[in-house]
Specification:
By secondary structure, this protein is mainly alpha-helical. The chain has 13 helices and 2 strands; from the N terminus they run H-H-H-H-H-H-E-H-E-H-H-H-H-H-H.
């Protein structure tokens, strides 16, 4: 137990016994016991918490179990516990900012961005935000890693805006409405994203990611910079063909 010197054993034992005996002795299956132990370890270790959960590798190392088994159980726990939408958005914002501290490492050669989200609920929540607004999310390389083009990254970032930023975004889009290629009865925001995607070569994709990060960390003024900058890029003749490919 040398790895668990920081564990509050009194609280762990008290809550374990309460949960284990809740429906009668021996009624809990082995998997439910394992899930209970994992949850209580995160609850009562000083170095672990649910806002920034430990990685599957950290847990598998300390528990001497396969990473894939720990990952599967942590995913199940994350869905059972279901963070509130506000909490999920706050955790996503923090995760994106942490993983994108070094923009050069975060942005791929195609101008897209990769985010590694081990928490199953948070990962599916991020995917659903993008899919609702802008289609498929690529997880083919590793199911914990989502790969987003610049346009799809902007879609995710905008989903994390507060009311004031959302209103500022709509206001800025109205200013450049005549420059945005319209498509059917789609919203102005969706048409803007599709216009970005059509020219989403490396330069446009990279710029979309950087401006998205700036808008996430900055104020309303960064929203204007985002819209103006990308609108100007989309108007540049031949930029899509010269950029060398399209991000996924």
């Amino acid at each position: 137990m040398s790895n668990f010197e920081d564990l509050n054993k009194e609280k762990f034992t008290e809550e374990f016994l309460e949960a284990y005996l809740e429906n009668g002795f021996t009624t809990m299956t082995k998997r439910e016991i394992d899930l209970l132990v994992l949850r209580l370890l995160v609850d009562h270790r000083e170095i672990w918490d649910w806002d920034t959960p430990p990685t599957a590798f950290e847990m598998s190392r300390d528990l001497r179990a396969k990473r894939s088994r720990i990952r599967s159980m942590m995913d199940e726990l994350s869905f059972r516990m279901l963070a509130s939408e506000d909490n999920a958005k706050a955790r996503l914002r923090a995760l994106i900012l942490k993983q994108c501290e070094n923009e050069g490492d975060a942005i791929t050669h195609a101008g897209s961005i990769r985010l590694q989200i081990e928490d199953g609920f948070l990962r599916d929540y991020a995917k659903s935000l993008v899919q609702t607004d802008f289609g498929i999310v690529d997880t083919s390389f590793d199911r914990t890693i989502i790969t987003l083009s610049g346009a799809k990254f902007l879609s995710l970032i905008a989903s994390l805006f507060d009311k004031r930023k959302k209103e500022a975004l709509h206001s800025e889009l109205k200013k450049v409405e005549t420059k945005i290629k319209k498509s059917g009865g789609k919203s102005l925001w969706r048409c803007f994203l599709e216009s970005v995607a059509q020219g989403a070569g490396k330069e446009v994709g990279s710029k979309a990611v950087r401006l998205g990060l700036a808008a996430l960390t900055g104020g309303v003024s960064e929203i204007a910079t985002l819209v103006d900058g990308l609108t100007n890029e989309m108007e540049s003749p031949g930029q899509g063909a010269a950029s060398g490919g399209t991000a996924v």
